[in-house]
Amino acid sequence: MTPADIAPIVTYLGSDDAADVTGQIFGVRGKEIMLFSQPRPIRSAYNSDGWSVEDIGSTVKEAFKNDFVSLDVSSDVFPYDPLV
User: Fold this and answer.
1) What are the pLDDT digits (tens) for 42-72?
2) Phi, psi (degrees; rounded to nearest 5) at 52
3) 84, 3 in Cβ contact below 8 A?
4) What number of other Cβ atoms are within 10 A of residue 55's Cβ?
5) How far, in Å, CA of 33 to CA of 68, rounded?
6) How far apart are CA 66 and CA 45, in angstroms?
7) Are 84 and 30 within 8 A, CB to CB?
8) 18 and 12 in contact (C-beta within 8 Å)?
9) Between the CA atoms of 35, 61, 65 and 48, what dihedral angle is there, to the nearest 10 degrees?
10) pTM of the full structure
11) Which residues contact 51 (CB under 8 A, 6 or more apart)?
12) How far is CA 50 from CA 42, 53, 59, in A?
């Protein structure tokens, strides 16, 4: 991807025509523009005393790890080369 691929969506989103396009997540991959779904909370943890680094490592990580999303590379997500 080059700045020339990304600049048009950035410029458009800054224009008056996009005034009603808010809170969206866009991606650019070559000549392709994608709209991503909004992330939503799937789990939460509460500690009335607040969190220490150690608490997060021992409690939150253990509670959340089964819901972690794997970090796929582009070729795992897109079964085709970037559209250029």
Assistant:
1) 999 999 999 999 999 999 999 999 998 887 7
2) -100, 165
3) no
4) 14
5) 26
6) 14
7) yes
8) yes
9) -80
10) 0.62
11) 60
12) 20, 10, 12
Interatomic CA distance for residues 8 and 10, integer angstroms: 5
* 26: nearest Cα among 11, 46, 41: 11
- Whether 10 shows a pLDDT value over 80: the answer reads yes
Residue located via tokens 């796929």: 72
CA distance 69 to 49: 28
Mapped to the 3 state alphabet, what secondary structure does the chain carry? CCHHHHHHHHHHHCCHHHCCCCCCEEEEEECEEEEECCCCCCCCCCCCCCCCHHHHHHHHHHHHHHHCCCCCCHHHHCCCCCEC
Quote the CA–CA distance of 51 and 59 in Å, as a whole number: 10
